[in-house]
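To whoever is covering the structure queue this week,

Two jobs came back overnight. Logging them here so there's a record in the thread.

Job A:
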Amino acid sequence: MGVLIICGSKSDLQVVEKAEEVLKENNVEYEVKVASAHREPDKVTEIVKNSDADVFIAIAGLSAALPGFVASITKKPVIGVPVSAKLGGLDSLLSIAQMPSGVPVACVGVDNSRNAAHLAIRMLNLKG
């Protein structure tokens, strides 16, 4: 499969829709799941471990642990999308961008899931 979009809460689905538009326009196979790294870590782990996606897009607001958590349990590329839930999204942006060494997460702009989808497509294109 191409891309798995995972978001931390149903309130993030409006941001998910923008990524879906880009993936649909480019005929990229994708799936969407909702699971919280804070409230449902076992569910997130199960989703990621059982996914055959080549790239993950993780969308989260507030402390935005989801992208880093996903990156900690896969060797595949993870793109984080910060959501503007509070503080204009700066809290989420910093949570995603300031990952520790060895747990890389690509980070796009606040609420910019369209760019996350475009980046995922470029990553998929590397496979040939």
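Job B:
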Amino acid sequence: MKRALLTGGGVLVVVVAVLAFRMLLGGRAELERAMTAADEPARVRHLRRAMAYYLPLSPYVRRAEAQLLALARAAEAKGRPQAALAIYRELRSAIVRLRSLYQPFAEDLAPIAARIAALSAKAPGASKVIQSAAGQRRLRLRLEHPPAPSLGFTLLGLCGYIAFVGGGFLLVARGLSKRAEIARRPFTIYLAATVVGFGAFCLGMALA
């Protein structure tokens, strides 16, 4: 029993370390691609991808957010309101998609929502409702407060990911002998954990 607990704890540590390392590398790589992008749309695309590699305290995600905000403000300053609006929308969408047990960068949603509402009112073909002060206020409040994530499905996705990665690791480490022969019972158990974990991860992320 003690040995099993130690093994499980070790697998969990490895899973968390691998995930954290992967997120850091991914964020840094996308940030570097953004710096060398050939045009603004490509740069925005890579910066948004960099934000998707969210990890608490990761410097790359915060830098990507800051650069997207700078691009939007620069577009406004240069008299390109539609380009600025598109970037602000991409930035808000990137922040909202980071929701899990909490909302990262929640404090930044209010000023971003305010700029989206103001620029939307000035966009060609904007409705009279959006152009009115009341319409802008309703839009701003709706953008400031996205629906809260589902705690249950978020936890399901997290547990599923751990089961998927941990099951795959044990599948190779314990499900096969040194001669690469299948140890039937452990192999079946770890294969089932990997498959079920992957399904739980996909379901949790889709419904969170």
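Note for Job B: The radius of gyration is 22 Å.

Please reply-all if you pick these up so we don't duplicate work.
Q.
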